[in-house]
Give the backbone structure.
Amino acid sequence: MMDKILLLIPIFATIAFGTMALVVGYLALQKLTDGRIKDYGMLIWYALIFFSVGSGIHTVQVLFNYKFIMGVSLAYFEYFFYAVYYIILLYAIFSLYRMSMFTGFSQRTKEIQEAMEQKQREGDNSDS
């Protein structure tokens, strides 16, 4: 019994921080104007919700020793939410890739790197 009581402390702390992350994240996303960055942020926020629900189901199983609801194993629901979490995350990563292609990040990164190397070479030549 004491083990379960001690387990409640980190569970409630996790719930509190997780809820704060969801609420503050949502409020921050509402401040953004519509566009690709907001869409990406919302995908990450949705993924976080699905992960939180899956984790909540897992916590219920461990803490209260519930294994079935209406004859169906809670593990199925838990892994369903985890699977959706990964699907959303995969789509978010793909969206980030498309966003980088759209904005030309890779080309700009090359240009910055070449300019820095040129500046370093010029600095090396002036020291001699």
